[in-house]
Specification:
This protein has 267 residues and is mainly alpha-helical. Helix content is 79%, strand content 0%.
Length: 267
């Protein structure tokens, strides 16, 4: 009985120790769960900058900016465009600051696309905040005012380049753009062959149809047809453009009919 009592006491002690250790571990887990140390602000900023929701939001802002630019072109007299443009500018400036904080100046400007984005934001600041102040100081200087207004329009049009960012940020559009870039080489090869073939024929036709005597022969035979032959083939550049019109079916009958009526072999 005494041994049994001692064993009972030992097991009870072990159970108490186990319960206390489990309770301490649970308390520690709760404490670690509710009192986690704050993350580094760079990590939090990077998480937000690389979030797909942030990317979609920036794409939406870029699309809305392009739409506003189109509406501003047609309805420029609306007095509140300046406020909307400044809202977009502040958003893009905040995004640029976030990217610089996350990547750092050296890593951020190592990419050509990032340099282009930063340039557009800087030009937007120049067009939206700096040039209007300079324009007010110019006052009656008409030449200076016209030059500054032209610079402002140029900076405003550069905002359309941001649409390229939307293509880069959307995966399907980016894949499509890469596929188009892949066929640029073969397409340029086809264009080069077509250019050379057209130039070859332009030289020959200028020598044959561009001769003034050919027009005199046509008039002597009193061929009635709309249009003239020689002016369309008077030199190589004009003949090249004439052949381009024929290839694209741009009033090609007006070019071909007088020649065919002159000599049927040309059909």
């Amino acid at each position: 009985a005494g041994e049994f009592s001692e064993m009972t006491d030992d097991s009870a002690g072990e159970s108490a120790d186990t319960r206390s250790s489990l309770a301490a571990r649970d308390a520690k887990n709760k404490k670690s769960r509710f009192e986690q140390p704050p993350q580094d602000w760079r990590v939090q900023a990077a998480t937000m900058a690389n979030s797909p929701y942030f990317q979609v939001a920036i794409c939406a802002v870029i699309a809305m900016n392009a739409l506003v630019l189109a509406l501003e072109t047609d309805f420029g007299s609306w007095p509140y465009w300046y406020i909307i443009d400044n809202i977009f500018l502040v958003i893009f400036l905040a995004e640029l600051a976030l990217r610089l904080l996350v990547d750092g100046f050296r890593e951020y400007f190592a990419r050509l696309s990032n340099m282009l984005d930063a340039s557009i934001v800087v030009l937007g600041i120049l067009e939206g905040w700096i040039l209007p102040l300079v324009l007010e100081e110019e006052g009656e200087n008409a030449k200076g005012s016209l030059a500054l207004r032209a610079a402002m329009k140029f900076c405003r049009l550069l905002r359309l380049v941001r649409l390229l960012r939307a293509v880069k940020m959307v995966k399907k559009l980016n894949d499509y753009a890469q596929a188009l870039a892949a066929i640029v080489g073969p397409f340029l090869l086809v264009i080069s062959i077509l250019f050379g073939f057209t130039l070859f024929n332009a030289i020959i036709l200028t020598q044959v149809l561009g001769d003034p005597g050919y027009e005199e022969l046509r008039l002597r035979q009193q061929v009635e047809a709309d249009g003239e032959i020689t002016p369309n083939f008077k030199d190589v550049s004009t003949t090249f453009f004439t052949l381009f019109r024929v290839i694209t079916a741009d009033n090609w009958i007006g070019v071909a009919q007088p020649i065919i009526l002159q000599e049927g072999i040309w059909w």
